[in-house]
Amino acid sequence: MASKSRIYRGTPRNLALLARRLRAGGIVGVPTETVYGLAADATSKAACKRIFAAKGRPTDDPLIVHIASLGDLGRVAVANPGALRLARAFWPGPLTIVLPKTGAIPGEVTAGLPSVAVRMPSHPLFRRLIRLAGVPLAAPSANPFGYVSPTTADHVRRNLGGKVSHILDGGPSRIGLESTIVDMRDPRRPALLRPGAITRSEVERVLGIRVARSRTSRAGGRLAPGQMARHYSPRTKVVLHDRLTPALALRSGPDEAWLFIRRPAGGAGRPNVHWLDAAGDLRRAARRLFSALRELDQAGYRTIHAERPAGTGLAEALLDRLKRASSR
């Protein structure tokens, strides 16, 4: 199946070819600074339906719309002063803002809701592709729905090679976790829908008010992606522990993997003991998380025991992904 897909370098000729494909209603695997996405023309119902079909994604899970410049925001959403403060502070970058949508965005993109999730990515190749396509691009993560998000072009080819024939290679994702999502439909009541590399405290500093925890729409639907209890999950069972010790790993069998945040002081020589970053740096740990889960999932383990990250800020985003990966 993978042979049906081709990975393209980011040359001007290749970018022009992929932009034509997007304008014609096709889907393209794209790099972003967060994770790799599966892009289509956000103004086309037919094109966006191809995203849902390729991923096996339920149609009640909204897509994020990506724009190339702040001037494009008014084309897809109705902004307010608070949302514009966030955009000026964090765009281009890993922040998605939920706002009332305009008529340019069909209901297929927003799960029928009158709101849309929008962000301006910082990855230079993706932004160049958006400009060349001339349309905003809807792009969820480029993986089968619910599975571990891809952070390289090869991850996309391995998972969706039979369903997406064009993949733009922009190198490994710099951040490795999906964007922070903030609901700004009512700027007086902002809410964090999904934690990410931009932390709740950073958003609060810009807005000057408290940011509440996640909420759904009045109709009960999901306002943005990444809010299902089980998500970002390998096929192998994941068990989340408040604290892992090398002693636990030493007593386990070889079919159980142990994933620490930092390199453990003992037991590091065992083949079933793994860690996200030797020094426990959370940014490097976040960049490594999804590729580590993929590797362990493919290694034939019966169980992956993962350590719960402690603290606030980026630890909140890491914990969110691990909790969803371990949810049953």
Structure description:
- The chain is of the alpha/beta class and 328 residues long.
- It folds into two domains: 2-207, DHBP synthase; 237-326, no CATH class.
- The chain has helices spanning 12-23, 45-55, 73-76, 81-90, 107-110, 124-133, 153-160, 200-207, 246-251, 282-297, 314-326; strands spanning 6-8, 28-30, 37-41, 64-66, 95-100, 115-119, 137-138, 166-168, 180-183, 191-194, 237-241, 256-262, 273-277, 303-307.
- An eight-stranded mixed sheet has the order 2-3-7-4-6-5-9-10, sandwiched between helices.
- Helix 1 (12-23) packs across helix 6 (124-133) and helix 10 (282-297) runs parallel beside helix 11.
- The chain starts with 5 loop residues before the first strand and ends with a helix.
- 48% of the residues are buried.
Supply the key terms.
328 residues; globular; 11 helices; DHBP synthase; alpha/beta; four-stranded parallel beta sheet; eight-stranded mixed beta sheet; 31% helix
Give the terminus-to-terminus CA distance.
Answer: 30 Å
Mean of the pLDDT scores?
A: 93
Identify the strand order in the major beta sheet.
2-3-7-4-6-5-9-10
The CATH class of the largest domain, by name, is Alpha Beta
Overall strand count: 14
CATH superfamily of the largest domain: DHBP synthase
**What is the correct CATH architecture of the largest domain?**
Alpha-Beta Complex
* Number of structurally distinct domains: 2
Alpha plus pi helix count: 11
- General form: globular
Rg is 19 Å
Low-pLDDT ranges? none
Estimate the helix proportion, in percent. 25-40%
Summing up helix and strand content along with how strands pair, one would put the structural category as alpha/beta
> Major beta sheet, specifics?
8 strands, mixed
